[in-house]
Amino acid sequence: MPAVPEQHTSAPVSWRPLVAACLGTFLLMIYTTIVTVALPNVGADLGGGFTGLQWIVDVFTVALAGLLLGMGSLSDNLGRKRVYLTGLVAFGLATLVCGLADSVAVLIAARAGQGIAGAAMFATILPLVGLTYHGHARAKAFAIWGTVAGVAGAVGTVAGGVLAELLGWRWIFFASLPIWAVALILGATTLTESVRTGNRIDVPGIAAFTLSATALTYAVIDGGDHGWTAPGAVIALVVAVVCVVVFVVVQRRSRTPMVPLKLFGTPAFIGVLVVAFGYYFASFGALPVLSLWLQGTAGLSPLDTSLVLTVQIVVFFLVSALISKRLHGLAPSIALGGATVLIGLGCATATVVLADPSWVALLPALVITGIGAGMVSPVFPAVAIAAVPPAYGGTAGAAANSSRQLGLALGIALCGTIYRGQGQQTTSGIVAAMVFCASLAVLSGLVAGALLRRPHKPASKVSSGQDVT
């Protein structure tokens, strides 16, 4: 195996395992956004109303967010490489079914399959990278991984528009299968298996967390569709609250909890979770409604829409790639909290569309949110892992990614609800959604900045997993 052993020598570092991890990450993350621009084409071909189209996007992120932590626990028991490769195989099969779907219902079900399989991949990729690289090589690997994860989600938006217009929406699924085959072969031959813990899997905790995330997202979508007092929305909210309570009780009583509650005594860990949720919600949660607005109100084609949204991608990539080393040298309160506030300010500039309802008016928002997201993405994985004792590094990484995906899921749901709530006033809907994103991002950044500035005991000085404060 080409993995780098834990030693302090100048032995050459093999980057093939990182390439394998980044390919899997890229494949996974493009499907958080690749359907966005193609939604009108999917609706025209398969039918289905706004809610059905929204679920095509959201069911993937809900399954991904809800199962991330559980898959992390499962991988500790069965081996991270084994769980990752199993998830990768299932992801490819679900992607094929997506491309062959003959109804919105089948497509939603297949997207759920993608999300479940993706959770197995996403929960294990970052720990596998951490297992392989050490010291400066690990910091560099995390930075590269974070950049790929962020860029891939944005690239999906462009790829979706291009493929939908030139080849048809089904090719947003078929076109990735060659990448999937390469990722599978490379992952199987280069990644190193982790040591199995043998701990009992926290099935009640996994079930409670997944149900709470799913119920909350359903409540937001159903409430926007039928009103917040509608039986479906009310029942879903009650289920979400009950499941959260059950989750906390289960974690307190379990000998092998999915997320040890002691971790929440670390301010920096909470700060990372707040940033992960807020920056992904604000940066990417409104993309589906922005796509609908650009094609419906501004009159752009899917290809033109994807090119407009490419502005955010280019800026994101340049920031992540060119200054990631300097970002790691900044205080986390600035690199994470400050950048999230910047994202909020960027979202606020979208109010310009009230005076000029054209694609040009969205450019400042895309540029500024691209800068902010490009600052956060390469930094937060390493900060999350460093905020807790080494024994909990995998859990911290999975929790941060889970918070990020939950932010995206709820961002899509809430922005869709706000946008749709304006009826025919679609430009007002875009402004309302972006103002909400702006408020959430600024609040998240300020809270996270305060938490990340609070002194806490570094992970390296904690001798036992029992002491995390």
UniProtKB/TrEMBL annotation:
InterPro entries: MFS (IPR011701), MFS_dom (IPR020846), MFS_trans_sf (IPR036259). It is found in: Cell membrane. This is Multidrug transporter. It comes from the Bacteria. The chain crosses the membrane at residues 18-40, 52-71, 83-110, 116-135, 142-163, 169-191, 203-221, 227-249, 261-282, 302-323, 335-355, 361-385, 406-423, 429-452. Residues 17-456 form the Major facilitator superfamily (MFS) profile domain. Its main location: membrane. It comes from Kibdelosporangium phytohabitans. One of its GO terms (cellular component) is plasma membrane. It is a multi-pass membrane protein. Keywords: Membrane, Transmembrane, Transmembrane helix. The keyword Ribosomal protein does not apply. Gene3D superfamilies: MFS general substrate transporter like domains, Multidrug resistance protein D. CDD domains: MFS_MMR_MDR_like. GO terms for molecular function: transmembrane transporter activity.
